[in-house]
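Can't paste images in this forum, so I'm doing it all in text. The chain is below; anyone willing to post the predicted structure tokens underneath?
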Amino acid sequence: MDIRLDRDLTDHRIISLLQEHLRDMARHSPPESIHALDLDGLRRPELSFWTVWDGEDLLGCGALKQLDAAHGEIKSMRTANAHRRRGVAAAMLRHLLDQAAARSYRRLSLETGSMAAFEPARRLYASFGFDFCGPFDSYVDDPNSVFMTRLL
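Text version of the structure:
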């Protein structure tokens, strides 16, 4: 697996993967509880976006948002439906943790869904040492959201 920094998000394969991600979020979450970013949101200067490739096949993606000098947030973690159960998410999560450490963040946090469809994601994050926490940054309590964090 090859993890690449993507600066412009113009490749049609990346756009398709992000559309798949947003469709899945809409299928499992009410509109007011969807915190997934669209292309413009992922192009913001406080975000870095990476993709995971196997040759020409796009396997997944993930982003890191700087909240402040010591705190980052994981955004847009996604494995393409066709490539699930291959370790793509774990590889991306390791990469994001390494990037956060290289930036000298002391904490890394995330928001994910509380519904059953998000259970595999919650298990993955917990296996990497993330613990449940309250809302952070501009998030508010929401029964459809789960917040997790990890000290680095």
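The chain has a mean pLDDT of 93. The helical segments are 12-28, 39-42, 88-102, 119-127.
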